[in-house]
Design brief:
By secondary structure, the chain is mainly alpha-helical. The protein has five helices and two strands. Helix 3 packs across helix 4.
Length: 110
């Protein structure tokens, strides 16, 4: 069971993994309610089994930066992409191919 520390009217998770997590993720987890905190830490743990802890934390951080509480499926998919060095690891997919379509111009020659 994780040790919790009372911090200004809220629980704050206190764990040895805090120092290994990105500071933005630690701050976000500190602000979460207990259910959100449990869900986030569980999703990181499950994704880390296949993709590694660093990739799982990076994925969870991207989810919280998007304004959501990380869930198992989202963190797992993002962590696998990050671990594989995919488009998500480089900042996202190049959607430039759609620019011509949206302007009514060039067609894809594939």
């Amino acid at each position: 069971m994780r040790k919790c520390k009372w911090n200004r009217g809220r629980f704050r998770f206190k764990s040895t993994i805090r120092r290994d997590m990105p500071s933005g993720l630690v701050e976000a987890v500190d602000r979460m309610d207990p259910a959100g905190r449990r869900q986030t830490l569980r999703s990181i743990s499950r994704a880390a089994e296949a993709s590694g802890f660093e990739a799982a934390c990076g994925a969870a951080l991207r989810v919280v930066e998007g304004g959501r509480v990380p869930d198992d499926a989202t963190v797992d998919v993002l962590a696998r992409r990050i671990a594989a060095g995919g488009a998500e690891a480089e900042g996202g997919a190049d959607l430039g191919v759609y620019d011509g379509f949206l302007r009514g111009g060039a067609r894809h020659a594939g």
